[in-house]
Amino acid sequence: MPFVEAVQNKLHARRYAQLVKQANQVLVPAVSHLQERDPDSIPRIYRESYRLVFFLAVPAFACLTIASPLISRVWIGRYESAFVAFVAILSVGWLVNVLANPAYVIDLGTGALRWVSVGCVATAVLNAGLGFFAGRCAAPHGFAAVAVASSAAVSLAVGYVLVVVAYHRETRTPFAQLLPVESTPILFASLACAALFLFGVAALIRSATSLRLVAVGTVALLSAILIPMWRHPMRERVLRWVLTRVPV
């Protein structure tokens, strides 16, 4: 029912907002403390936090896109092409948003709010403007929903790209740090598997009637992404951090 779905979406958005608020309540004061006591350590904190976010976010959104047909089969009960398309489109925008989070948090902690404000305003303005015009132009052709979703992803990405670019330019941080060398295999595997899925495997999954066949194809692509993750030097640090927080 539309009303129930709207309520559920509102609850999920509220929970996400609470998580973001709690994370900022912890990270922003920590960065502010470093700004006062040890400002020279902030570039290192940014570099390490970005490496961690890149290691987790790129394969996570690629895996989410690849698993969307299986999620559709289990959650909706059938393959829903609109659901799969929306997941793929919005994953790109949210990936950029997540990758920009280290720069965003450090700007908040150090008080460099100008480009944070510009990025947020740009996201809001582009979201409303692009969404309206894209929906109007695409409606006669029958893909208004995809156009609106694409506009949301583009506006989200553009707004937070401004934050990242401004941070790197103002702090003179090399843009090469945006592509960590040790994460190159993960990036290539994620892009290759996502492209293979979008341009080939999705058609097979769409026509498949067996849920088991869909699951096998999904697991095969996910495994190709998880292998370079397992070989990544960041993996041991992440596992150690997780295991220290698991109650015995």
Overall description:
The protein has 248 residues and is mostly helical. It folds into two domains: 34 residues; 195 residues, no CATH class. It contains nine helices and no strands. The longest helix has 36 residues. The radius of gyration is 20 Å and the shape is flat. The termini are far apart.
Write the layout of secondary structure elements.
Blueprint lengths: L1 H36 L4 H34 L5 H19 L1 H10 L3 H25 L5 H28 L12 H24 L3 H21 L2 H11 L4
Helix pairs in contact: 1-4, 2-3, 2-4, 2-7, 2-8, 3-6, 4-6, 5-6, 7-8
Key terms:
flat; single chain; 2 domains; mainly alpha; 248 residues
Distance between the termini: 42 Å
**Based on CA inertia axes, which overall geometry fits?**
flat
How much of the sequence lies in strands comes to under 5%
Poorly predicted spans? 1-24
Number of domains: 2
Mean pLDDT: 80
Elements, N to C (H/E)? HHHHHHHHH
Number of helices: 9
The biggest sheet amounts to: none
> What is the chains' assembly state?
single chain
Given helix and strand content, the structural type is mainly alpha
Q: How many strand units?
A: 0
